Amino acid sequence: MTGPGIAMSSTVPPAGFAPLARRAPVAKIVALALFTTAALFTREVAALGFALTVTFLAAPLFGITPWGLLRRGWPALLGAATVVLSLALFAADRSGTVLVDFGPVVITSTVLGNALSLALRLLAIALPSILVFSTTDPTDLADSLIQHARVSPRFAIGALAAFRLVGLLGDEWRMIAMARRARGLDAGRNPVRWFTLFASTAFGLLVGAIRRGTRLAVAMDARGFDSGLPRTVARPMPWRPADWLLVAAGAVLAALIQLIAHR
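Predicted structure:
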């Protein structure tokens, strides 16, 4: 996905340079769930910093450079900056040592610590998720869900269709924006006008996504995806020992995060 959302890769990096990208999607998702759940239940800066360090060190093993991960995750970085700014301005608890006292803006050590921990927690959850899903082929994900997670083909194929349509949202956003600009609808430097145009564009994108999803659901039902008959597997995907190792590594890293948080 490009444009207003998180960039998603349509292809998995070359196998020789991305050993973790070749792992079964279910194994990657389970390891991700263990890792991010451990980060979710801690606000210790050291533990969250460890989680982010592991994420950036593991990025090349997924075929993505740390800088490329930051570029893909710019919405998460923007969200983290927003968290820090909002807490710095509106936090109720302003105990601790005063670090900045500029008119109505008073930033204390407690405010800074809370803002930093929440921002790091957001990044420790978002960036590993981007790392996993941007290196997962949608078809491989559906095959792995059916063969390894034993989910119903209806759910897996629906997830495949939704995953493939995510990349269209960025293109459609740009098309709506250009069409409105061609009609003379431009915010210029007016922030109120910019927000109004942003909200109306987002609403138009939502309406288009719902219509496309409805048409896709009807088309899939018409082709027998809801027939209830057993479906064969076109591409067998074996579960290898390396997949177990990845899940075990996720569990170990999750335990280390909690250990650092409660040391």
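Summary: The chain has a mean pLDDT of 82.
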